[in-house]
Each structure stands twice: as structure tokens, then as C-alpha cells.
Amino acid sequence: MSTTTADIFSRLARDYADETPLRLKVIDTYMVFCVAVGLAQFAYCLLVGTFPYNAFLAGFGSAVACFVFAANLRIKTNAKNASQFTGTAESAFAEFVFCHITLHFIVANFLG
Amino acid sequence: MKLATGYWKAAAAAVAMLSLGLVSGAIVAKDVNIKVVDRTGDKLFGKQLEYPATFDKVPKIQSTTPLSISFKAETADADTPLRLDQALVSFQHTATGNEVALPAKAVGKSGVFKMEITRKLFRKHFDSAPGKYNVALVLGSYTEGGLFYKLGDVFMAESSSKSQTSVASPGYGPKEEIRHRFAESQRMPNVVVSLVFSCAVVVPLVVLLAVWARLGVNVDNLQKEAAGSIAFLGLVAAYMSLAVAYWVGVKLFPTLAYALVLALPTFVTGRYALSKRIQKGI
């Protein structure tokens, strides 16, 4: 049976929708949001220039860091990884919140 | 009447100090010799003066006809050679008022001082500013006072080579005015471009909330553990507000103090709310 690229992607989307828990879908959409915001800022930087550079670094760095924190939260809250991580999803969320608080103070300092 | 400048003021002050009796004695310039010779050594102008006489004729000075002035400094009462702390020959342009003061150097230990305008000095100070100059001796001694002795006028001729030299800065005169160059303002993008990309950054948030709503994300479980959850989320919101306040104007150390104050309640309420969620199986 020949499979096309469209078939592969449609099967991937179907399996994702069926098998992925709601909690992980919420985190995944948040990660896509972080990527979209980062791309928008990067496109603006390419089009217009880097001035003010510190503001661009703060905004783009914030988007990247949020993506990384969300990725870590997803890894820790995924039930398939329960054997590798001893903490609960709530403890992972608490770490996620702490990292975000620290990140936003750093971003506010760098924004200028 | 033109205001005195530079060393003319210093000389006036020295004379004033002398008149007040703040220094002893007085300086007298004797055997003042003024000579202008051409390149072959022939004397074009020569005059010997005794203080306070001046010379009437205005000799014309060029780079090829150096001017030399020699004199002897003595104290008025002791009539002995004097070691001067300051010996300058001042040239003040009659039209612009710019002043050039050239040092006179001691010749031996006999108390004789000599100043000569060499070709190099002429090109440096007078080439770009020809014209009539008032010549004066400005002498000073810490113990004997000062002397300001106007000798006469000389005419500094324009250079025949017409070389484009930059304006020579006087040895002891005013410097060129400093003109600050401020950084040019950055070229900002079009307002429409800025607004378009502002929307481009906000739209993903709207899309995210819409997708979450479609996925069924809600806050119903907050009611099962309202107090702890609302307190915890409120304190997290307080931290975000503190970050905004820090960006707007609050300084670093007050911000850290406020963050420290919020830290313990946030930790306590967060631990309580999340542990309750685990207990209740939310």
C-alpha cells in the first residue's frame, strides 16, 4: 500500500488527537504559541532591524525560555515518563511557575 | 577700549601687587634690543630701548626675516642681574585681539634673555594670521614682582607661498571651540509596520485561548479547592505585577525586598493548594 506524505501527516494528526492526553495538548498548544510569538519577533527584527537590541533579545529570549520550560513541563507530566521522574505533575507545575517568575524578572530587567 | 586678555591681565595683576607692596622691589628691563635681519644677515631694522621707551617704526616681519628681541632684567634698587620666573614676549593682534606669547630664554648666567621668531615659529603662529601686532615684554618674578613693558608694533606679513595650513593654535592663547557631536537618532520604522507586528504578536495569544476553549480548558476545579488556589494564583499574579512595576520604575533593591516579602506566602499557599489537589485527586 503506497503512502503519500499527506497520508502520513493525516495519520499523525489522528493519532495525536486520539492518544494524547488533554493536559499534554494544552501544553503543546502553549508551546506552539511560544514559537509563533518568537517567529513574529524574529521576522520583525529581520525586516526592520535590531534597534533596540536589548528589547529584541528580551522578547525573543522570553519566547524561547517559555518554550523550554513548557517542554520540560510536558516531559515531566507525561505519564509515559513516570518511571524516569519521581515527582508529581503538581510539583512539576510548581517548578514551572518558579522558573517563569525568575524568567520574567530577568526579562523585565533586560527590557530597558 | 579693548579688554585686556591673557597675560596682559597677569601683568596688570603683578603691577597691582607691586603697588600694594606685596612684593619687594621692581623689575627693570635694560638693553632691550630689537632686530630684524634678512636671509643674508643684513639688518633691516634695529632699535635699542631703555624702559619705558618704545619704538615708533613698524617693521615688517616675514618668515624669511626673523625678529629677535633680547633684553636684560635687573632689580630696580639692587641693580643686579635677576633670575626671572616668567619671561614672555607677547604679540597681540590689533584687529582680532588674539594673543601669542613666546618664551624668552636665558642666555648664560648674565641675566640676558633672548627671543627669536624662527621660520618654524612664524609659520606656526603668524602665517595664518597676518596683520599688525602689539609687542610687549611680560616679565615676572615671585620675589620681585612683575613688569609689563609695551615695546611697540610690528607687522606680520602674509606668507608668499600661500600654503593652506590649518589655523595655528597660539602657544598660550585660547583653544578652538569644542563642538559636541551628539549621537544621531536611530531611524525608526513606519508606524504601520510597528502596529502590524504588534498584532502579529498578540494574535497567537487569542488563537491560544480559542484553542484552549475548544479543548475544554476550564477553571471548574478551582471551586473544589478555592481558597488555596485563588491565593496561590493571586500571589503569582502579584509577582508578575512586581516585574511590570520593576520595568516601569521601581529600583532593583526595593523590588528584591518586595519579592522576598511575597516569597514565603507564595510558597506556603502553593504547597497547600497543590497538595490539596493531589489529596482530592483533582
UniProtKB/TrEMBL annotation, chain A:
Compartment(s): Endoplasmic reticulum membrane
Where does it mainly reside?
Answer: endoplasmic reticulum
Q: Which pathway does the database say it acts in?
A: Protein modification; protein glycosylation
Q: Which GO terms describe its biological process?
A: protein N-linked glycosylation
Q: How does it assemble?
A: Component of the oligosaccharyltransferase (OST) complex.
The task this protein performs is described as: Subunit of the oligosaccharyl transferase (OST) complex that catalyzes the initial transfer of a defined glycan (Glc(3)Man(9)GlcNAc(2) in eukaryotes) from the lipid carrier dolichol-pyrophosphate to an asparagine residue within an Asn-X-Ser/Thr consensus motif in nascent polypeptide chains, the first step in protein N-glycosylation. N-glycosylation occurs cotranslationally and the complex associates with the Sec61 complex at the channel-forming translocon complex that mediates protein translocation across the endoplasmic reticulum (ER). All subunits are required for a maximal enzyme activity.
Q: Which family does it belong to?
A: Belongs to the DAD/OST2 family.
Please report the name of this protein according to its UniProt entry: Dolichyl-diphosphooligosaccharide--protein glycosyltransferase subunit OST2
From TrEMBL, chain B:
Q: How does it sit in the membrane?
A: Multi-pass membrane protein
| All residue ranges annotated as the Ribophorin II C-terminal domain in the record | 182-277
Q: Specify the pathway.
A: Protein modification; protein glycosylation
Where in or outside the cell is it found? Answer: Endoplasmic reticulum membrane
Ribophorin II third domain: residues covered: 31-140
Q: Does the keyword Ribonucleoprotein apply?
A: no
GO cellular component, as recorded: oligosaccharyltransferase complex; proteasome complex
Q: Name one GO biological process term.
A: protein N-linked glycosylation
Q: Which InterPro entries match?
A: Ribophorin_II_3rd, Ribophorin_II_C, Swp1
Query: Which terms are listed as keywords in the entry?
Result: Endoplasmic reticulum, Membrane, Proteasome, Signal, Transmembrane, Transmembrane helix
TM segments?
Answer: 191-215, 227-249, 255-274
Main localisation: endoplasmic reticulum
Instruction: Output the Pfam families linked to this UniProt entry.
Output: Ribophorin_II_3rd, Ribophorin_II_C
What PANTHER family does the record tag this protein with? DOLICHYL-DIPHOSPHOOLIGOSACCHARIDE--PROTEIN GLYCOSYLTRANSFERASE SUBUNIT 2, RIBOPHORIN II
Query: What's this protein's function?
Result: Subunit of the oligosaccharyl transferase (OST) complex that catalyzes the initial transfer of a defined glycan (Glc(3)Man(9)GlcNAc(2) in eukaryotes) from the lipid carrier dolichol-pyrophosphate to an asparagine residue within an Asn-X-Ser/Thr consensus motif in nascent polypeptide chains, the first step in protein N-glycosylation. N-glycosylation occurs cotranslationally and the complex associates with the Sec61 complex at the channel-forming translocon complex that mediates protein translocation across the endoplasmic reticulum (ER). All subunits are required for a maximal enzyme activity.
Q: Which family does it belong to?
A: Belongs to the SWP1 family.
Which protein is depicted?
Ribophorin II
Source organism of this protein record: Coemansia aciculifera
Lineage summary: Eukaryota, Fungi, Fungi incertae sedis, Zoopagomycota, Kickxellomycotina
